[in-house]
Specification:
The protein has helices spanning 6-23, 33-48, 54-60, 80-93, 103-132, 137-149, 153-156, 163-179, 191-214, 218-225, 227-231, 237-263, 277-283, 295-303, 309-312, 314-325, 332-350, 370-383, 388-409, 422-432, 452-468, 475-494, 501-516, and strands spanning 66-69, 72-75. It has 523 residues and is mainly alpha-helical. The protein has a two-stranded antiparallel sheet. It is globular.
Length: 523
């Protein structure tokens, strides 16, 4: 790909990422409350012109994630993601009546036509941001591929949750600030630069405001992303902040109006009106369930085989370490903003009783800041580009993340919490049983081991880029990272299972039952 035209190369990389994002998905028989409750609001807005989800509940069935106020039901999530899905569902409704859509149909529609483009846009956006910050192309390739395919972004770019949307909006906010010249030192003031600054600030405000509309906890994230504006010296600082706030204002007003219409007060949240007792126990204490950081949660978020950042997304874990180790690598305002966002999310997630994220893989609740961690990783990697050993560590981390994430995503992306060692507990048994997750190939042939072959080719191409792009020197320098990544992967796979044989057999039987009832592969 080195001799290709840059635009052609970018198009091929985007195609490689999109194919892997779209390749596998979850079983239709698995009802994910987080997705269903958002889809119910989307359906209610389009079909019933209301934010109450009473009608979708009667039509599709009850869902676990619910809020109730004055006898009416509402989603317990912030409305932003559901509202983003409204054009997708409204477009589909032009061709089919409402009765033709099941809840699964709506969710799959949104996964395909909203979440996949958002996931791909995150890849493109990260690359654009890193170029604007003068990161070298090899470092851009490694970190952007690792972000999109070697972290939990791989799955949440294909699922109707808010996490990937937040991550992409955070990157978009920084990209707008970079375009406005607020992330680099000593930008020259010219008439054209001033126009760009106003447009960039307005765009940054729009992205940050939308981020807060998508998830309640992201309101603080939106404010932290605007720190480079306040940290910029000069008399225009307050005017810059005002333009940023102007961009964010419509979304802030929309959230306040939604809260008032749904729950009787502009600052009343859905978490104050949860239906289930178990939900009330989870989210009723402290700040929407967050109390104070727990050491066990903090350690789990870092090194756990199932949830830990350093094992499930190693390159982003190196970015986290780099934030603390070498703060001067990044422009000061950018470093403060990224640190503030990452620390905020680590503290709030480790303070939650559900820090592990339920059925999932990797630190699901840290996905909103994974793009920021990729930015930090790119700066650290780029600063050591003349040191083959350090480059090898970063490339090995990227390969390991891709192998681990792809192995899980190709079999069962949302693993139950009890699988403490995902590879020996659940993933390798599924590979041995020839049980892939539903995928593109099973539209042409039954679910079976052969479905994995095209994906294996795509993953091999990704690994080749991670290993070879910009790598020079002796063979051990070029291929050592590949050997190291495979060695760690084999060690993780060779660990003794944390569950007994009976539970493992029950797991396989359940997955087989889901496979037998899977219909989406045959339409």
């Amino acid at each position: 790909m080195r001799s290709l035209d840059p635009r052609t190369r970018e198009a091929l990389l985007c195609g490689l990422v999109l194919l892997q994002l779209a390749y596998s998905w979850m079983y239709s028989q698995i009802s994910v409350p987080n997705e269903r409750t958002r889809a119910y609001l989307t359906v209610a807005v389009v079909d019933d012109a209301t934010i109450r989800i009473d009608a979708p509940l009667q039509r599709f069935g009850r869902v676990y994630d619910l809020a109730n106020y004055r006898g009416h039901y509402f989603t317990d999530k912030a409305p932003g993601a559901s509202l983003l899905a409204v054009p997708v569902y409204a477009w589909a409704r032009l061709w089919k009546p409402a009765s033709a859509f099941s809840a699964v149909d709506v969710i799959n529609l949104v996964r395909t036509y909203l979440m996949l483009p958002i996931g791909l846009f995150g890849f493109v956006l990260l690359r654009s941001l890193l170029r604007s910050l003068h990161i070298s192309e090899p470092s851009i390739d490694v970190t952007s591929l690792s972000f999109s395919l070697g972290s939990s972004m791989l799955h949440y770019s294909t699922a109707f949750y808010s996490h990937a949307i937040e991550a992409v909006l955070a990157l978009a906010t920084l990209r707008c600030l970079s375009w406005a010249g607020l992330l680099s030192e000593g930008a020259h003031e010219t008439p054209s630069a001033e126009r760009r600054r106003w447009l960039g600030l307005l765009g940054a405000g729009v992205c940050a405001g939308l981020c807060g509309l998508v998830e309640y906890q992201a309101v603080v994230l939106a404010g932290l992303l605007g720190l480079p504006i306040l940290l910029r010296a000069g008399p225009a600082r307050l005017r810059n902040a005002a333009v940023f706030a102007l961009g964010a204002a419509p979304f802030a007003v929309a959230l306040l109006v939604y809260n008032a219409r749904a729950f009787g007060g502009a600052f009343a949240l859905s978490y104050q009106h949860l239906v289930g007792e178990s939900l009330q126990e989870l989210h009723g204490a402290g700040l929407v369930g967050a109390t104070y950081p727990h050491w066990a949660a903090f350690v789990g978020l870092l090194i756990d085989q199932h949830r830990g950042l350093l094992l499930t997304a190693p390159l982003l874990g190196l970015g986290l370490l780099g934030l603390a180790w070498r703060p001067r690598l990044m422009p000061r305002a950018l470093w403060i903003s990224v640190c503030g966002c990452v620390v905020y999310f680590i503290l709030i997630v480790s303070s939650s009783s559900v820090w592990y994220g339920g059925w999932s893989f990797g630190p699901r609740l840290l996905v909103p800041v994974m793009g920021l961690l990729a930015v930090a990783a790119a700066f650290v990697m780029d600063s050591w580009r003349a040191h083959p050993l350090v480059q090898g560590v970063f490339r090995a981390a990227a390969v390991l993340g891709v192998l681990y994430q792809q192995a899980v995503h190709a079999t069962f992306a949302e693993l139950p919490p009890e699988f403490a060692r995902p590879l020996p507990d659940a993933i390798l048994p599924l590979f041995r049983a020839g049980a892939p997750a539903p995928n593109l190939v099973c539209k042409l042939m039954p679910l079976g081991p052969g479905n994995w072959l095209p994906l294996a080719v795509l993953v091999a191409c990704t690994v080749a880029i991670l290993i070879g792009r910009g790598s020079t020197g002796r063979p051990w320098v070029r291929y050592g990272p590949l050997v190291a990544a495979f060695s760690v992967f084999v060690l993780l796979a060779s660990a003794p299972a944390s569950i007994d044989d009976i539970r493992q057999q029950r797991w396989l039987q359940q997955v087989r039952a889901w496979q037998d009832s899977e219909q989406r592969c045959h339409v």
